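Structure first, sequence second, as always.
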């Protein structure tokens, strides 16, 4: 690597800007192909994390709605509505993420994180081991889990 090229490890932002410049200038032989490939893969992982995080938040609030009915209020309802809307938009913008919705291992992790979050926020420990709702039901704006008391 020549002296004027930035190191991926020492300043990723400067590196990224320089890689973009090199691409635009057609200086392909100077590109850091391996790190560019890693960064492109990371974009996909980031999109998956975004979907998972939104589902975790939505599911944890649905659990709280069901298992702490006396505490439900407008803030929970707003969060549920906002997460549903954000998930729909995210899936529309990145349709390839829909494949994750059929991945049982991915759902297991998402559900586990949702249960952990709901447990942390409520102090409750007794939640279903597996998600009792289908994705379509979770996303249905008319779906509000019945109290489980």
């Amino acid at each position: 690597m020549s002296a004027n090229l930035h190191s991926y490890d020492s300043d990723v932002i400067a590196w990224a800007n320089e890689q973009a410049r090199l691409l635009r200038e057609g200086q392909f032989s100077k590109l850091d192909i391996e790190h560019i490939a890693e960064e492109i893969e990371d974009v996909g992982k980031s999109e998956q994390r975004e979907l998972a995080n939104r589902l975790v938040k939505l599911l944890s609030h649905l659990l709280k709605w069901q298992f702490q009915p006396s505490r439900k209020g407008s803030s929970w309802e707003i969060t549920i509505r906002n997460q549903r809307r954000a998930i729909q938009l995210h899936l529309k913008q990145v349709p390839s993420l829909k494949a994750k919705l059929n991945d049982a291992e991915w759902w297991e992790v998402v559900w586990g994180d949702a249960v952990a979050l709901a447990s942390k926020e409520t102090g409750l420990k007794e939640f279903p081991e597996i998600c009792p709702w289908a994705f379509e039901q979770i996303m249905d704006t008319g779906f509000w889990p019945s109290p489980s008391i």
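Margin note: Residues 47-139 form one domain.
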